[in-house]
């Protein structure tokens, strides 16, 4: 029997877990469905937590060279009422967010995987698995099998493999999604803050500087995010059309006009759907779920990729002895942090993406005002920075 651990999915969670485990001398096989992984995906805000994990992998300098420092998050209404105003400096004088293109981050992780000599099977979708007391058998699309000592599922929110774990769980498609793209930053466009504009909770535009895709590319980008109900997402370009969409964007936030001048083809906009994933625990004997597969959430709090990096780091920290015990200890170690962010995401997202009236009204009246109180500001920024493990107290130690 192969003693190696199988990781299914080479996104942020799977690639980072493979790196951290391989660094500890553990043999790893990565199975990725896509025949040729390409550097695509939304711009990500890497929090101080995610940055710490990248530093531990020796990848932070590379990420800083490609990404852009984000010092502040600011959101307001068309009437100019500030809803969110958070500066990382208030969390720690040296703290900042790092806006980076997902492709740039993946390039760094995949490069490290190659350097470590991790076996990587592309175009290798895994359809099912069976486990017994001594290992796990993967069943590949097309019928081949592979035997491993343990299995880490990192194949995203919509994983079907997760359902073969004997763990209480549910995954609910969030009723709102988004279209997004990365556009070249026009001359003089602000590049140090994450900017959001809301009308109630039914319209939201987000802009975030995300740096460049590769070292060779000297064009710095801005990630543009436009919230849409899932029911309107499919076929939006024929129903709504690009011109009307751009009109809605500049109606909400006129300053976006020079940026969206570069948006000329509906194909530039990618659709994003997300699911709330809940699991009673993340392990089932020799199988563990990590990343979005284990705890997918809406991107409103900007935590998904950070959580994936932390999962990988904490798994490697527990990786000694028999796998069922490693996975059990991992679940205990991650519980408070993941539960807090799952609850915070569920509570906050309808205030920013929904047809609700009362929740955004309260948000507009009280968030800006509350945020000026030092305690509330401190708690909000600690939440954004990714460190909280409970509503009243508790801080993640990485
Ligand atoms: C619009 C948007 C904005 C976001 N913004 C932020 C942000 O600012 N900050 C942040 O931290 N997070 C953000 N996120 C969330 C973040 O992108 C995700 O949480 C993170 O990428 C999850 O990584 P993952 O590896 O768990 O899953 P995924 O990235 O979904 O990777 C899963 C991988 O598994 C592979 N796979 C699937 N099924 C199989 C199979 N059967 N066999 C083999 N391989 C398979 C897939 O091809 C894929 O490569 C955002 C998400 C969206 C949609």
Task: Describe the overall structure.
The chain has about 400 residues and is α+β, with helices and mostly antiparallel strands. The chain has 2 domains: about 260 residues, FAD/NAD(P)-binding domain, CATH 3.50.50; about 100 residues. About 35% of the residues lie in helices and about 25% in strands. It has a 7-stranded mixed sheet. α1 runs parallel beside α10, α2 packs across α10 and α10 runs antiparallel to α11. It is globular. The two termini are about 35 Å apart. The structure holds flavin-adenine dinucleotide.
Briefly say what this structure is.
The protein is an alpha+beta fold and about 400 residues long.
Portion in helices? 25-40%
Under CATH at level 1, the class of the largest domain stands as Alpha Beta
What are the bound molecules? Answer: flavin-adenine dinucleotide
Query: Which term fits the overall shape?
Result: globular
Helix/sheet category = alpha+beta
Report the CATH topology name of the largest domain. FAD/NAD(P)-binding domain
- Mind describing the biggest β-sheet? 7 strands, mixed
Q: What is the arithmetic mean of pLDDT?
A: 94
Q: State the distance separating the first and last CA atoms.
A: 34 Å
Which parts are unreliable, with pLDDT below 50 for 5 consecutive residues or more?
none
CATH superfamily of the largest domain: FAD/NAD(P)-binding domain
Instruction: Return Rg in Å.
Output: 21 Å
Measured by DSSP, the beta-strand proportion falls in: 25-35%
Across the major sheet, the strand order is: 6-5-15-16-17-14-18
Give me the number of helical elements: 13
CATH architecture designation of the largest domain: 3-Layer(bba) Sandwich
Number of strands: 21
Domain module count: 2
């Amino acid at each position: 029997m192969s003693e190696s651990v199988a990781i299914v999915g080479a996104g942020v969670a799977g690639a980072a877990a493979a790196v951290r485990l391989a660094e500890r001398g553990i043999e790893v096989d990565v199975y990725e469905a896509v025949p040729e992984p390409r550097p695509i995906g939304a711009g990500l805000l890497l929090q101080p937590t995610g940055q710490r994990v990248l530093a531990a992998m020796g990848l932070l300098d590379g990420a800083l060279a490609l990404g852009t420092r984000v010092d502040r998050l600011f959101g307001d209404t068309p009437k100019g009422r500030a809803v969110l105003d958070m500066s990382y400096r208030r969390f720690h004088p040296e703290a900042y967010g790092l806006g980076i293109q997902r492709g740039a981050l993946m390039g760094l992780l995949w490069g490290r995987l190659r350097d470590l000599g991790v076996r990587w099977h592309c175009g290798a979708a895994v359809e099912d698995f069976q486990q017994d007391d001594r290992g796990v058998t993967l069943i590949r699309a097309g019928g081949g099998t592979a035997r491993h000592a343990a299995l880490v599922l990192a194949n995203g929110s919509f994983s079907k493999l997760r359902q073969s774990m004997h763990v209480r769980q549910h995954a609910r498609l969030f009723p709102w999604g988004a279209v997004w793209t990365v556009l070249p930053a026009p001359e003089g466009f602000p590049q140090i803050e994450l900017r959001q504009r809301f009308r109630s909770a039914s319209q939201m535009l987000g802009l975030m500087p995300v740096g460049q895709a590769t070292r060779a590319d000297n064009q710095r980008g801005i990630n543009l995010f436009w919230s849409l109900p899932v029911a309107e997402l499919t076929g939006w370009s024929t129903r709504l059309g690009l011109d009307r969409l751009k009109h809605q964007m500049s109606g909400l936030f006129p300053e976006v006009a020079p940026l969206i001048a570069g948006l000329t083809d509906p194909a530039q906009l990618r659709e994003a759907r997300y699911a709330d994933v809940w699991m009673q625990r993340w392990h089932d004997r020799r199988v563990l779920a990590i990343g979005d597969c284990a705890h997918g959430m809406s991107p409103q709090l900007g935590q998904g990729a950070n959580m994936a990096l932390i999962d990988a780091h904490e798994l490697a920290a527990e990786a000694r002895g028999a796998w069922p015990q490693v996975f059990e200890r991992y679940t205990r170690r991650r519980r408070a942090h993941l539960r807090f962010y799952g609850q915070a995401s569920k509570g906050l997202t309808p205030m920013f993406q929904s047809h609700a009236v009362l929740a955004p009204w309260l948000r507009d009246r009280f968030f800006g005002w509350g945020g000026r109180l030092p305690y509330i500001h401190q708690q909000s920024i600690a939440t954004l920075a990714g460190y909280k493990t409970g509503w009243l107290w508790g801080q993640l130690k990485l």
